[in-house]
């Protein structure tokens, strides 16, 4: 992409990008062949050919984690039957550590063959069966040490099973010798780009649309009867165009030349993983919009929020990055205290962009926001861990949560989104509505993100240092945010949203649960039994001696079962008043125990948000306010 002018560097067409690969370049590039070998056994067969291996013995390795999911997953554990050959003759391949191998010296073409077990139905790894195939590059592509900067070539081959003759391919990889949606040869400019373009193959449903002139694919894999692709495409297009306009209000130029939404619809599931020109999503098929379905279900709103979240990452974290992420070390943890910004701010904008795009109204948005507030304030962990600490500890705490997590940690996603809201309101109030968090995001984009991948080709890319955020906010808005960040990001104080929102015509009602009795636990079904999932610190169950994983048998002689989980024991506990003592029988492991708990007032937050002053002056400054004439 060295021939493009600066504003167009990341917007060249696929044909232009692939044309820079001459036959000589292709033949000298690391070359992978991917074959869905055994659908029932969930095996991808991979062949890696290295034209010019290191004379001292080529090193290869598989990433230990995937960017966007901050946990070491050791993908190499799924590699089996790995071997090497030099010019067709088998040679030694020594394993050096959990994910690195070294081939014996080879003066000709080196071939490394291996199988990858793919049975992880998630957005993070690889999955293969008779219905579809999906993989992230971090799960299948060995890195060729010393050649990561070179173009990479991939042959995607169709499964041999005749039942797969109608399968297609969805990926943002550049076609070299393949038709769009077809099997064949694809390319990437370097290894970093190669592993940032996941691949879906199967009989998926496909719809296409343009957002600000850029083609987008919307792919859904899985059985969804009467799927309403037209509605989903219309809604997602509005979201995409609103986000593009946020970062580039004048040019309306997207940072990629093509984008692919890859959605796996399953019985139960929810999640997404961002990539530079695509996203992998998983959701319940009940969350997908259906034809002739009236209104908008809560599940569908959540799905649109997921699409919005991952699309926003196209800018925030895929191009605007923490400094430590500017050049990933995929062999180990990469620590940053800024995930509250990169995930938290994205979580703020995901639902906010739904209302700005006109997909939902402001009342619906405030209802979704209230749920987030209630979720954050439910756990006492927010008083023990700051979102900066939560960001740093993501590898060992947030991604490895256990039954005590609500009492020990805070989410940099949810509290981070409230930090973003609070900062947005603070900036708007301090500047009489002339500046907002939008200006901060645009400043970050212009300084760090706009040319990130163009600069990366010459190793000149830069990320945001942890000490720079205050100066970026100051330059973009004129607001000194140091005290705010000290309190709510580096400190553990709750963001005072009721106070901040008061100037914007939104009333924050805390609700009143003082007369509702509670044990202070969260229960989950365990077969026919009712099991304690979490015991909240300082609450009645904790003081009585109950623990997570205890199975409740009876309360005051009345049986408790899995049927009581649906209402969170509200009916079972609702028979009693605050201050009453109840006798509880429970099993801990295989031992019966009896405890006495004095019921406390329910402390489950019940915050609601309502527009109290819909007047023009306050409404125009509110982040979620939209003039009716716009839609």
UniProtKB/TrEMBL annotation:
Its domain of life? Bacteria
Cited SMART domains = PDZ
Q: Where is the composition biased (Basic and acidic residues)?
A: 1-12
Report the transmembrane regions from the record: none
Q: Which residues form the PDZ domain?
A: 517-590
Q: Which InterPro entries match?
A: PDZ, PDZ_sf, Peptidase_M4/M1_CTD_sf, Peptidase_M61, Peptidase_M61_catalytic, Peptidase_M61_N
Residues folding into a coiled coil are none
Where are the stretches annotated Disordered? 1-29, 608-631
Q: Where is the composition biased (Low complexity)?
A: 18-29
Q: What Pfam families would the database entry show?
A: Peptidase_M61, Peptidase_M61_N
Compositional bias, Polar residues, is annotated for: 609-624
Name recorded for this polypeptide: M61 family metallopeptidase
Which organism is this entry from? Undibacterium oligocarboniphilum
């Amino acid at each position: 992409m060295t021939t493009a002018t600066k504003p167009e560097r990341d917007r060249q067409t696929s044909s232009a990008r692939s044309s820079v690969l001459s036959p000589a370049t292709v033949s000298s590039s690391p070359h992978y062949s991917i074959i869905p070998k055994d659908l029932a056994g969930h095996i991808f067969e991979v062949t890696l050919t290295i034209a010019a291996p290191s004379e001292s013995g080529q090193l290869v390795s598989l990433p230990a984690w995937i960017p966007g999911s901050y946990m070491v997953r050791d993908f190499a554990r799924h590699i089996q039957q790995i071997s090497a050959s030099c010019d067709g003759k088998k040679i030694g391949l020594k394993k050096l550590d959990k994910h690195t191998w070294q081939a014996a010296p080879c003066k000709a073409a080196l071939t490394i063959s291996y199988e990858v077990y793919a049975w992880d139905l998630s957005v993070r790894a690889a999955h293969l069966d008779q219905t579809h195939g999906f993989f992230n590059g971090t799960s299948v592509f060995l890195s060729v040490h010393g050649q990561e900067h070179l173009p990479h070539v991939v042959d995607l081959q169709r499964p041999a099973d005749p039942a797969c003759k109608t399968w297609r391919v969805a990926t943002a990889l550049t076609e070299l010798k393949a038709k769009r949606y077809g099997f064949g040869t694809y390319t990437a400019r370097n290894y970093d780009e190669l592993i940032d373009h996941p691949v879906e193959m199967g009989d998926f449903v496909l719809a296409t649309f343009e957002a600000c002139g850029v083609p987008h694919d919307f792919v859904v894999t899985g059985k969804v009867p009467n799927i309403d692709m037209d509605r989903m495409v219309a809604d997602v297009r509005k979201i995409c165009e609103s986000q593009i306009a946020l970062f580039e209000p004048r040019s309306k130029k997207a940072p990629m030349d093509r984008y692919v939404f890859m959605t796996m619809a399953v019985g139960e599931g929810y999640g997404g993983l961002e990539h530079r020109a695509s996203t992998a999503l998983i959701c319940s098929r009940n969350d997908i919009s259906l034809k002739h379905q009236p209104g908008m279900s809560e599940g569908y709103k959540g799905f649109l929020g997921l699409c919005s979240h991952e699309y926003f990452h196209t800018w925030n974290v895929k191009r605007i990055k923490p400094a430590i992420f500017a050049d990933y070390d995929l062999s180990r943890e990469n620590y940053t205290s800024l995930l509250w910004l990169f995930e938290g701010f994205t979580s703020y904008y995901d639902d906010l962009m739904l209302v700005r795009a006109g997909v939902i109204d402001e009342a619906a948005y405030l209802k979704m926001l209230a749920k987030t507030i209630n979720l954050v304030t439910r756990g006492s962990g927010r008083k023990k861990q700051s979102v900066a600490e939560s960001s740093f500890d993501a590898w060992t705490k947030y991604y490895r949560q256990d039954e005590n997590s609500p009492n020990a940690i805070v989410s940099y996603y949810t509290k981070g989104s409230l930090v973003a809201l609070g900062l947005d309101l603070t900036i708007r109030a301090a500047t009489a509505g002339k500046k907002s968090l939008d200006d901060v995001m645009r400043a970050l984009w212009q300084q760090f993100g706009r040319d990130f991948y163009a600069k990366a080709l010459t190793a000149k890319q830069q990320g945001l240092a942890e000490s720079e955020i205050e100066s970026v906010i100051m330059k973009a808005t004129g607001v000194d945010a140091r005290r705010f960040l000290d309190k709510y990001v580096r400190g553990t104080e709750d963001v005072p949203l009721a106070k901040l929102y008061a100037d914007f015509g939104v009333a924050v009602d805390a609700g009143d649960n003082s007369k509702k009795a509670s044990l202070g636990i969260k229960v989950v079904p365990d077969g026919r039994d009712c099991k304690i999932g979490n015991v909240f610190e300082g609450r009645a169950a904790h003081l009585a001696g109950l623990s997570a994983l205890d199975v409740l048998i009876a309360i005051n002689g009345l049986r408790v079962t899995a049927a009581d989980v649906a209402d969170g024991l509200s009916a079972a506990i609702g028979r009693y008043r605050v201050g009453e003592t109840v006798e509880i029988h429970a099993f801990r492991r295989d031992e019966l125990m009896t405890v006495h708990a004095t019921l406390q007032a329910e402390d489950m937050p019940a915050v609601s948000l309502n527009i109290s002053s819909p007047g023009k002056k306050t409404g125009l400054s509110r982040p979620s306010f939209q003039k009716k004439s716009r839609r």
